[in-house]
Amino acid sequence: MLKKIIFLIIISSSELIAHNQNSIWCFGDSAGIDFGNLSNPIPITTSVVSKGSCTSISDSSGQLLFYANNRTGNLAISTRVWNKQNTIMQNGDSIVGEGLYNELTIVPDDSNQFYLFITCTVFPGSEGFYYCKIDMNLNGGLGAVTQKNIQLLNFEIADCVQAIKHGNGRDWWVLAKLSGPGNTQINRFFVYLISPNGISNPIIQDFGNVTDGDFEKIVFNNQKNKFMLINFIGFMGDYDFDRCTGIISNPSIIFPELSSNYNRFFWEGAYSPNDSLFYATTTWNTFPQDTSRLLQFNLFSANIPASCDTLFESRNPKNFGAVRLAPDNKIYMTSFYNWGFPGYPYPDSVRNVYNENLSVINYPDSLGTACNFQPYSFYLGGKRTYFGLPNNPNYGLGRWISSPCDTLNVSVGELEVNNKWELFVFYHSSWEMLFINAQNIKGRNCLLQIFDINGREVFSSAKNTQPPYFTQDVDVVSLSSGMYVVALTTEKEKLVKKFIKQ
Among residues 112, 212, 278, 410, which is most buried (max CB within 10 A)? Predict the structure, then answer.
């Protein structure tokens, strides 16, 4: 007998479609990248002309929805929002922004409405933290900005807005940070909850003994339980972050602020995919030389500062900018070619290998030269790069499985299944082997996945099988002790089971 059931799965329906939302990057001087084919990303043309801040979001199939950027030299009102046709979205101009480097990020509100968060740092009268609302239901799917320049804070905010999904897999946290003179011995974070009820009042958290600066970066690791804070006056420190409560804790200072060491004037940073390494750039006006550097730190080292490895360096006018982990698990780095004051926008004649290419770290989990850093190796199709790359959060981040806030019973819909369809999972502790079997399945193409308690995939294997049976043995000796979830998906059905490795 057939019956309808609702499966509770590791990744909610919104999370299943979210992995493609970071597929399109829009940045630099009309530049962009389409990561739709991870084995062959391709350059695209956009309407961005920005030395720094930019952000973008795509739909569930990886098709561009909209993007935004600010403009250096247009202080106070510099942000524009563009639709997928590369024209300014309705009501998408005259938006606050100061032309810095990490002012913008996009956060989904529901499937067709979005927030654009904006920080402003130094321009008198515009300092603060703002948001806009964007409704993609309007204008035949091209969208419109329905609210803009709504101020949440009215004082100087550092150039490092960041967002991360709540542990329930639906809501979001957005982090802003204090900046500016007069706040020199406080490290103050403002953490906002974004939910169906709107934007909450911030959780304000203070950490001392840090000199704030305008140019800072918050970088979440890939397990999303920590972030690294770096700034242009030499500070580097990691913090724990609780996706259930929004609480920041356990600061670990790797470098204090204000050092004369050339390695200590950090511009941007990125974690490697397995979170074992951290990459940071320093840019052209680092003391004592006009030299940019790409640095690698081993986070598993007993002495992280001593593990610093200079992978590449370059003298002005070739200056390094953003580093970002991309959907293809490679890290991309920008280069700004400083052709002369004011350096922006580029004249059409300023074209060279340095500003028409991104540099790529091909194996970012590997130490030293094994990471295969290739300078100026990704051609942008005749478009050019400045300092910035998109400040996009991890839209595909799943729920924090078995956490106190894993309380939303989100389904993938009602599926017609046979009530005898079952998934059997047996863990043999002595052999450290997982035996997986299923019977009465529908569909030929089976995808087997294993996720850890944080929703991170630790195993994946596709298999064509002859229904109605499936069987596979998985060696789990490399997995740490703890709870895991096994998911078996066909083109027609999905089932999950939990197991505990002791």
Answer: 278
Contact in structure between 232 and 213 (CB atoms under 8 Å)? yes
Residue 13: which H helix or E strand, with range? Answer: helix 13-16
Rounded to a whole number, what is the largest CA-CA distance in the chain? 77
Query: Is 24 within 8 Å of 34 (Cβ atoms)?
Result: yes
Residue burial 183-195, b: 16+ Cβ < 10 Å; e: rest = beeebbbbbbbbe
Whether residue 327 contacts residue 33, with contact meaning beta carbons closer than 8 Å, is answered with no
**What is the C-alpha end-to-end distance of the chain, expressed in Å?**
38
Picking from 358, 390, 311, the residue whose alpha carbon sits closest to that of residue 27 is 390
pLDDT for 414 equals: 27
Q: Which residues is 296 bridged to in the sheet?
A: 279, 309
Calpha distance 218→231 (Å, rounded): 9
* pLDDT score recorded for residue 421: 52
Instruction: Read off the tokens for 284.
Output: 């052209």
pTM: 0.78
Q: pLDDT per residue over 437-475, tens digit each?
A: 777 777 778 888 888 876 778 998 887 765 567 778 899
Q: Which residues contact 138 (CB under 8 A, 6 or more apart)?
A: 90, 144, 146
Q: Is 50 exceeded by the pLDDT of residue 416?
A: no
In this prediction, what percent of the chain has a pLDDT beyond 70? 88
